[in-house]
Amino acid sequence: MDSYPRGALTFPVVDVGPRAGAAVVLLHGFPQDSWSWGPISRRLADAGLRTLAPDQRGYADTARPRSRRAYRLSELSLDVVALLDAAGLERAHVVGHDWGGAVAWHLAARHTDRIASATVLSTPHPAAMTWSLLRSRQALMSGYMAAFQLPVLPERYLSARMHGFYRSTGMPREAAERYAERFADPGSLTGPLGWYRALPLTRTRVGRSRVPTTYLWGNQDVALGRVAAERTAHYVSADYRFVELPAGHWLLETCADEVAGEIIDRVKGSETLTA
Questions:
Q1: How many domains does the chain have?
Q2: CB of 208 within 8 A of CB of 239?
């Protein structure tokens, strides 16, 4: 499949690997898209897994609602459920990086009938993040989120500085150039920023993950600190593995082998747990 619908929206999706393999949904972060999963998808396909990597809500011209309410976690999670329905999948393993990780946490807590396991990259559990705000430097590290609530200005500011932003936070040059071109138009960032602008509208807490879960965190991440990362273990009630990597935020681009290996271990380990 190369796309799927949910209501009036249509989501492009990159479908790689054997159709008979265990299905793994790959959810990108901000500001990226499904292209970020290319090296990981190839490694997972070689291991016999099928991967489905959508361009998430706000990133595709055909799935870019204007209302910030449309970007609440509950809606973002239902986009993934719609993907499973369209692909004819009863259950799948979910992997998310950055904001995609927040969606993965929500799915692992609230849609456990459809999620076999979760592998989350960089992003701590939302409750751990909240807990850390008053107990660490996390509030300072997350200060940019308040600035993103402003209209128009964040789009203009970011679009003119994307390449420098990516490079200064550790992204390899080839990927930085590709994304800087992808988000050169300020309008291309309004949908992605909608995820941040929906935060004040979020009232429902994300519960504990109730599926086997692996959490990978780079100890040089400039946006997500150690306190929240280590606190995350309190919010998983199933088999849990925490992996600390000597890396920054862009784990897909800098640690593809390690990330792919952990995903494969989680998928195959989860199948053993439920056998």
A1: 1
A2: no
Percent of the chain with pLDDT over 90: 96
Q: What CATH number is attached to the domain comprising 32?
A: 3.40.50.1820
Q: Which amino acid is at 133?
A: L
Q: Are 214 and 105 in contact (CB under 8 A)?
A: no
Asked if 270 and 117 touch (Cβ cutoff 8 Å), the reply is yes
Q: Report the alpha-carbon distance of residue 163 to residue 173 in Å, rounded.
A: 9
Residue labelled with tokens 């292209």: 35
Span 117-140, pLDDT tens digits: 999 999 999 999 999 999 999 999
Q: How many CA atoms lie less than 13 Å away from 73 in the CB half-sphere? A: 23
Instruction: Report how far residue 128's alpha carbon sits from residue 236's, in angstroms, rounded to the nearest whole number.
Output: 11
Whole-angstrom Cα distance, residue 62 to residue 7? 11
Beta bridge partners of 218: 245
Q: Is the peptide bond before 31 cis (omega within 30 degrees of 0)?
A: yes
Query: What is the pLDDT of the chain when averaged over all its residues?
Result: 96
Does a structural domain hold residue 22?
Answer: yes
Query: Which structural domain range is residue 59 located in?
Result: 3-138+205-270
Which are the catalytic amino acids?
98, 196, 249
* CA 89/CA 108 separation, integer angstroms: 16
Q: Which residue has the tokens 């988000």?
A: 183
Q: Is residue 78 part of a domain?
A: yes
